[in-house]
User: Fold these one by one.
Assistant:
Number 1:
Amino acid sequence: GSDNYYATLAHELQHLLDFQVRQNTPLWMAEGMAQVAERVAGFDQVVADDDYLSNAAVPLNDWNVSQLDDRHYGGSYLFLTYIYERYGSESMRDLMESKLTGMAAVDALARSQGGDLDQLVGDWLAAIALDDASIGDGNFVFESDDLARACPVIRPEEAPFKNSASVPQFAPRYYEVAGTGPINFTFVGKDRKSVV
């Protein structure tokens, strides 16, 4: 068979294992884990991450099945790849075997590693933009992917700069601000949303 055949086989076997273990894994997590399984099996067939990186303004964990596109799959793949690379292969098993589902399971996993969901998601979003292990505590990197092409960045030309945008939960919007001196950011909106 072809690499695509074997990648699909790894993907579908992950779904089978997941169904045998829990049967209630949210679609975003099930698809992300299945794409990670393709990568772990040695097949680099995942292309949806490029679609996500070009326009990440989609919800990570709240999929409307009638509006799905490759960006949803790409975001889920990148998030679960980040978890896999940061916490190790056991993390996928821990997520599958957790009595919790979705982001609650991810939060429990992050807490078992000394962090929490907010920190993990923040580090993941920073890793997408930076993809550099030499920054901070080394958690802002993807080992298996070169994300140098990352999401579009808004670069204000002059100050003061005002922007209004809507961003789904767990989705990024990146700004690159140049210059010296203090910079003030004002955020207006909800800074919290229930995980479950």
Number 2:
Amino acid sequence: ATADVNVPQPSGKINITENGTDIDVSQYALADVDVNAGLEISFKEGAPFMLFGYTVTSGQIDIEVPAQYTELYDGAFSYAQIFKKLKFLGLQRIPNVDVSNGELPPFTGANFESIDLGTSLTSIGNYGCANTASVTIRDAIFYLPVTLTNIGTNAFHGYEGNTKIYYAGTQTQWENITGVSNVPQTIRIIYETTPD
């Protein structure tokens, strides 16, 4: 026998506060939720970080992650289909992801147009922005700040097509980043460019 499962279908606005929301704020909180294109997601100060892994959607939305969220951990947006543009306002560090022990890179398998990693990011760890999924991700766009000083091994592994990194600094500044050789040569770097 199988049980009918009620999948919530939120619409309108979800306010994420330190006391939770109408959807449980936990890992994969929006898993298998059909999020319509009109949904707005509002973070409040002190709120736990909403993880959007495995979210499905009938329309993508733009998401801003506020400044109090300074680190991004494994699996945070893995396989998410919810966002078109993702912008971090205070991200400082993406730690190493231990893929050999089953950890998922934060954006692996996610369907997105662009990810703006903010203006204060200093380090992207091993596999930090990688796509290790069997899902092909093509034409991805990443925005990286001049504050970046370290790029780990395989940090941008697994992207195909016309994937680009827009770097806010000069070519000389880019070449001085530790681990810059870890970025695949198939990814095009555009210098002195910031998001609109």
Number 3:
Amino acid sequence: EMFFRKLQRMKKPHLQIQIKGQDKYLEQETKIIKMIEQAIEAPSYDRFPLSPSQALKCARMLYYSLKNLDEPSKYPKTPYTARTILTFDAGNRAEWSLIRYLRKAKNFSVIYEQKPMVIASTKHFDIQGTCDLVLDVKGTKMLVDIKSINQEGFKNTDLPRIAHYAQVQLYLNSDWSKSQDIKYGAILYYNKNMCQ
């Protein structure tokens, strides 16, 4: 009984020290997160606002994107949060990682990677996109779009997503794809939670 009383007395200060330590750790963690957020640069909005990744977005959103181009002060864009920028960055790093491994594959070769292309052109502007990959599979060219998604999205049986399908169709029907005789496309989904 005396042993348990001593043990109870010892636990209290130990727990208080642990809590203070956690507070200090959380404080440091918060400082580090703030420093990272300050270092993150938002992507520029220099290019024309419509792109293949916006295929099938609502007309109202597309309208405001175009109005922002003419009157940025009247229709300001909401800047990306640090978390959104980091999410885009993680997706880009996953794409480059997959491309690096696909370059080593034996059954096909990588012809193009991260290829900027013009989807449609007018007198005043170009609608541009970036094709992730073009593979040569036994003499047949195949355009591949890589999408990194979370576990929940990966389990979804409705893949490919219709917007992703539309995006690949825009790439395939571009003048550049026609000039390269690319008739086939694929969407490669990468589960970023499970690395599969």
